[in-house]
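Lab notebook, bench 4. We co-purified these components, and the gel suggests they stay together. Before we commit to crystallization screens, I want a quick structural picture of the whole thing.
Request: model the full complex, all chains together.
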Amino acid sequence: MAAAPIIELQHIKKAYGEKTVLNDLSMTVYPNEFVSIVGASGSGKSTIFNLVSHLQEPSGGELSVPERIGYMQQKDLLLPWKTILDNVVLPLDLQRKNKKVSREEARRLLDKIGLAGYEDKYPSELSGGMKQRVNFLRTFLASDKVLLLDEPFGALDSLTKSLMQKWLLDIKEEFQLTILFITHDIEEALFLSDRIYVMSSELKNFKEEIVLDFHNDEKLARLRSEKLLHLKEEILAQL
Amino acid sequence: MIRLNNMARFKNNLYPVATILAVLIVWQLAVTLGDVPGYIMPSCTDVIAAFIKDFPLIASHTGYTLLESVIGFVCAVITAFVISLLMDAVPFIQKCLYPLLITSQTIPTIAIAPIVMIWFGFGIFPKVLLIVLVCFFPIAVSLFDGFRKVDQDHINLFRSMKASKWDMLWHLKLPSAMVNFFSGLKIAATYMVMTAVISEWQGGLNGIGVYMVRAKSAYALDKMFASIFVIVLLSIASIYVIDYIAKKVTHWK
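Here is the predicted assembly.
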């Protein structure tokens, strides 16, 4: 790709005391890309996110990330005392943006993600899939179109999950997002991504980088392709 | 569905109400049939009669007790907020104060009440002070625990959105501590009326406790029972008020 990377990690090390979690790890994400990190739980995937979002500092190496970045987790983390609208605009309120303008914007976006009419409801009144969409919207408003999604659909049932995956691809196109995605669901990664980093707990680094160069314009077709199955086997063998 | 719930609730309430009625009837019969003198045990109807006869006096004393209680309670809430916020913000203060707060609760009110009277006289101040001392603790501890219990994932979320400490307090910590805060408030409310009455026993010119002491000196047990009735009502009413506010504030629960 010709464009400059939007996220760049070079020779990153991270250790908690004696325990090394990440060792000499490098990765790049380019604008508009959908990049996934797959790996077993406890392999340090979430640590990468904590570093990229500045929640933690690396023990060594160089890190270049955008100023504002959205970080979404498996738990929806909506505030139960705030309405859906107030939850969504929270990042804008924290930036001291004009309340009226940001609420108008949020209403427009809620309509776009199919939640018109839910503005004044409370999170407890929404289903799991709806809550994750609200969470996504809040993450989006907190970011400059660069989103870190940490197993965002991990807690959803499989039907809702596949609907949300298609929804995510549509939204990504519509808003020109750059997404860095963590999952342990290999099929999910193969369906959604442009590139996949396979994380290894022994190396404390990536074992492989897979560039997905088939059905990139119509990712739904991937689900019917034989190549997906081959790649899935290949990745499973690595883990 | 709602009607059914109401019906079930009504039925459930019937049991304790019937029990109270039975006790009252037994009481009335025992006193009248046993010919017990009024200075040992007044009958139910004696108490009601005393209450009606003395109502203006009881009402004015109760009003005074209520005033003390509300002033003390509000001061306790304010102090509790200040102290628990300080303890949450400055670990040093927490380490100094928190263990002391817990152990200070083993000091019974009734033991320090006479000292406070000696120091500060028979006016309203020592009463308010005692109420503050007693009510402050459950509120401060529940509020502080509420701040502590905030989910680490939520804190990380706010940090990733670059929220300031003040924003984190206002949008996250305060609202999520409200549930804890109100349970502390309810405990404090039961202490509040009790402390007011005990402090009035020590001496003073006004208050339902003062009225009780005077009734006791005159062996007017009917008036004493009437005041106990008022004190119980006061306690129940204050808990109801707090429950009502709690439901409005923590509506998501």
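The helical segments of chain A are 45-52, 84-88, 90-94, 99-112, 128-141, 158-175, 186-192, 226-238. Worth comparing against the SEC data before the next meeting. The domain at 1-69+146-239 of chain A is CATH 3.40.50.300 (Rossmann fold).
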